[in-house]
């Protein structure tokens, strides 16, 4: 005989206050027994296994296997009462005494929860009775020092939390509520899943612990359900067994639809509820149930179960009356039972399931484990004793331990089973979708699976298109604390909040984010820039002042035109070199000045086009030298005018400077100093081409880096010094009387020259890219044109248009 404890009835305990405690009989605190209809499949699985074993000629031959069936309640007192009743063998509880004439009870199958297994094990271990738990695997029960007589047949749930987090990550949920039983197993689950959630950046919205006592259920379900319904999270994971989650089964859930997605674990039967309660509040729930192999013949057996098949089974009769809602006919023996031809297959899912549950499968294997252990012990005894002597059938229950812990077998479904917990297999899970149809029927549909032992990438599979979500939406529920930050945005942590709760902020200037929920924005490479949405980098356009664009073409035309005009003026001076006005103003200096102005105009062309090493070296140095020659020539002209008029006075010391080559010396000395400065510049820190990626947005400017800024401004400063000197001398000599005096024209030319370059400095510093180059070219052309216009145009006007004024007689008359 096998003793088996199943949870077939529940007792609803009323909440009793201290004032009401002694105002009624104790029994009135408990409501009548209520059938847990779905659990009756476990009793039928037990019956099916026993009948199979008794029909098998190779397993326990000539021996019949039977069982004593007891109900367990979710309370310490009732569990101990049932255990003592089984040990005594009678209705009376007599500790340490068995009323059975010939005790052939060998083992106990029981413990739908860890708490019940511990309560039973504490008592049964006193008598060394083997106890095999069919409830969820608990590592605490594997401690053979504390529970030496207890075995577990359920697969290990050590990977369940990983499967749940896989589901969260797949649907991008990161704001999850956790509900677990208030016991050691629940604490272990919470610790494991929190750790796994932390690895995958999933946050816990709230944690609720379910009390495990019946009175605690009825006392706290109102507060419990209120807290869940008011929680901000739409996705809630529930871990516990069917008995522990009685609070959800019998709680007064509001009539309005609950906008929550429930994710249940393997031992919570979400379909198990009173018939008068609808399951629409759990519509769309996802359940991780055991993925088990189908036991051949079990469904056929269930279809044939009827009270007429087992007329002596009063338990089946009571179940039949309750599940088919018959009136109580137990007192009327003559009246036939109602619905005698009905089938369990017609019952709704909330009352009975034709598919073998995980607990029924474990009970089925547990019965076979005991049978194989008995078969082995009888086989050993039969080798020593004669088969005719029935003494080999007599043994003590404690002798079964050595055989039971080594038992292994292949069941009819093809699975290899072990009783040793160390060799137990890892649980595999089918992901089921609970659907409650409008016609008040419900179903569980497989939408995926999680097999921890499968290769990485193949362990978790889900068919999203098949899943039916809750009534309130047809798409995947929003299981996040904050909406995702799209591309171009970054997450901003909220003070005092978890990492899953954040605000979104646009990326700073020059940075992008191309992914969802980016913690930080990143800068684009130097050759790229962010687009307007700041979600990707675009290649910058390479730019420089080219002759093909309007500005470059205009400046080029101006430079060539002015250089040709200067060459034309030079031609006029050469042609009319013997005229008084040309001779009076030092032809050599005029030729030198005009030639230098031609190069001044042409050197601006070095600033147009793609900068190269050669052009960068030449543009500033050539510009500095030719401008120095031009300004030096003007300075020499001015000095000659002053010397010419001051030197004619008797006893003047300036007469010593009246040397025919003095003007050449002035030009050579001044230009030589500038050449020296340029040589030092090129020798120490020469200009070079570079790509400027920061000055202009969305552009890479190819420009010349001056190398040494000090040298650049020193060269310009030297030219400014010469120009200021020429302006000062010319201004002082502007009123000297004679027709040959060109100091007035030089004064005006230097005024224009200085005005252009004084304006150039702030403008040059405030511009970037092509505009900076254009400013320098314009300054070169404007200052050169000013010198040409102020000094030579009046002379050309007289030479070409007023030749009568360009005669010796006319000059003498003045």
Automatic annotation (TrEMBL):
Residues 551-814 form the G-protein coupled receptors family 3 profile domain. It is a multi-pass membrane protein. It comes from the Eukaryota. It is found in: Cell membrane. PROSITE patterns: G_PROTEIN_RECEP_F3_3, G_PROTEIN_RECEP_F3_4. Belongs to the G-protein coupled receptor 3 family. This is Vomeronasal 2 receptor 550. It comes from Monodelphis domestica.
């Amino acid at each position: 005989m096998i003793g088996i404890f199943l949870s077939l009835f529940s007792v609803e305990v009323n909440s009793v206050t201290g004032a009401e405690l002694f105002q009624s009989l104790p029994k009135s605190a408990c409501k009548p027994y209520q059938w847990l209809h779905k659990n009756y499949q476990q009793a039928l699985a037990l019956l099916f296994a026993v009948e199979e074993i008794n029909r098998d000629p190779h397993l326990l031959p000539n021996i019949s296997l039977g069982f004593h069936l007891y109900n367990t309640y979710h309370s310490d007192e009732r569990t101990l009462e049932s255990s003592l009743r089984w040990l005594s063998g009678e209705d009376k509880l007599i500790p340490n005494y068995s009323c059975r004439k010939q005790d052939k009870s060998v083992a106990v199958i029981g413990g739908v929860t860890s708490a019940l297994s511990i309560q039973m094990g504490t008592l049964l271990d006193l008598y060394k009775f083997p106890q095999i738990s069919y409830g969820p695997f608990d590592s605490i029960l594997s401690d053979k020092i504390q529970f030496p007589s207890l075995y577990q047949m359920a697969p290990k749930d050590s990977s369940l939390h990983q499967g749940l987090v896989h589901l969260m990550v797949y649907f991008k949920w990161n704001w999850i509520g956790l509900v677990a039983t208030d016991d050691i197993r629940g604490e272990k689950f919470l610790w494991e899943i929190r750790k796994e959630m932390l690895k995958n950046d999933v946050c816990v919205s709230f944690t609720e612990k379910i009390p495990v006592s019946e009175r605690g259920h009825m006392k706290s379900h109102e507060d419990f359900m209120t807290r869940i319904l008011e929680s901000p999270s739409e996705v809630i994971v529930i871990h516990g067994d069917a008995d522990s989650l009685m609070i959800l089964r019998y709680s007064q859930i509001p009539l309005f639809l609950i906008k929550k997605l429930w994710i249940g674990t393997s031992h919570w039967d979400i379909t198990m509820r009173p018939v008068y309660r609808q399951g629409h509040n759990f519509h769309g729930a996802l359940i991780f149930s055991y993925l088990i192999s189908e036991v051949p013949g079990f469904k056929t057996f269930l279809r044939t179960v009827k009270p007429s098949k087992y007329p002596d089974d009063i338990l089946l009769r009571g179940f039949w009356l309750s599940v088919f809602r018959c009136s109580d006919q137990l007192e009327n023996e003559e009246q036939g039972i109602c619905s005698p031809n009905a089938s369990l297959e017609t019952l709704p899912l909330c009352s009975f399931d034709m598919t073998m549950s995980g607990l029924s499968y474990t009970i089925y294997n547990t019965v076979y484990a005991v049978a194989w252990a008995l078969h082995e012990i009888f086989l050993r005894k039969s080798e020593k004793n004669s088969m005719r002597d029935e003494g080999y059938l007599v043994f003590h229950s404690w002798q079964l331990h050595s055989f039971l812990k080594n038992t292994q077998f292949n069941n009819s479904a093809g699975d290899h089973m072990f009783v040793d917990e160390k060799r137990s297999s890892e649980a595999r899970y089918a992901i089921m979708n609970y659907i409650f149809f409008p016609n008040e029927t419900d179903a569980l549909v497989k939408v995926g699976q999680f097999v921890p032992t499968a290769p990485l990438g193949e362990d978790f599979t889900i068919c999203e298109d098949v899943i039916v979500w809750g009534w309130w939406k047809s798409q995947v529920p929003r299981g996040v604390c904050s909406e995702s930050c799209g591309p171009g945005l970054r997450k901003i942590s909220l003070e005092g909040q978890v990492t899953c709760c954040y605000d979104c902020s646009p990326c700073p200037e020059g940075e992008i984010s191309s992914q969802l929920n980016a913690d930080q924005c990143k800068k684009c490479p130097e050759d790229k820039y962010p687009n307007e949405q700041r979600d990707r980098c675009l290649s910058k356009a390479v730019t420089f002042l080219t002759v093909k664009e309007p500005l470059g073409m205009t400046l080029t035309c101006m430079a060539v035109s002015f250089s040709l005009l200067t060459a034309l003026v030079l031609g006029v001076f050469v042609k009319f070199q013997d005229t008084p006005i040309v001779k009076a103003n030092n032809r050599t200096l005029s030729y030198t000045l005009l030639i230098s102005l031609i190069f001044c105009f042409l050197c601006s062309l070095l600033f147009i086009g793609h900068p190269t090493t050669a052009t960068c070296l030449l543009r500033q140095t050539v510009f500095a030298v030719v401008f120095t020659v031009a300004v030096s020539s003007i300075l020499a002209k001015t000095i000659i005018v002053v010397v010419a008029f001051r030197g004619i006075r008797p006893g003047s010391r300036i007469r010593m400077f009246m040397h025919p080559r003095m003007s050449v010396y002035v030009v050579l000395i001044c230009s030589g100093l500038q050449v020296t400065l340029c040589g030092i510049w090129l020798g120490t820190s020469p200009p070079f081409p570079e790509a400027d990626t920061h000055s202009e947005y969305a552009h890479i400017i190819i420009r010349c880096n001056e190398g040494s800024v000090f040298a650049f401004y020193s060269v310009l400063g030297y030219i400014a010094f010469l120009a200021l000197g020429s302006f000062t001398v010319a201004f002082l000599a502007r009123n000297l009387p004679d027709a040959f005096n060109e100091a007035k024209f030089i004064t005006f030319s230097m005024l224009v020259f200085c005005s252009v370059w004084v304006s150039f400095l702030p403008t040059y510093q405030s511009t970037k890219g092509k505009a900076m180059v254009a400013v320098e070219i314009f300054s070169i052309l404007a200052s050169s044109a000013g010198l040409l216009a102020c000094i030579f145009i009046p002379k050309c006007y007289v030479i070409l248009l007023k030749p009568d004024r360009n005669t010796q007689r006319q000059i003498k008359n003045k």
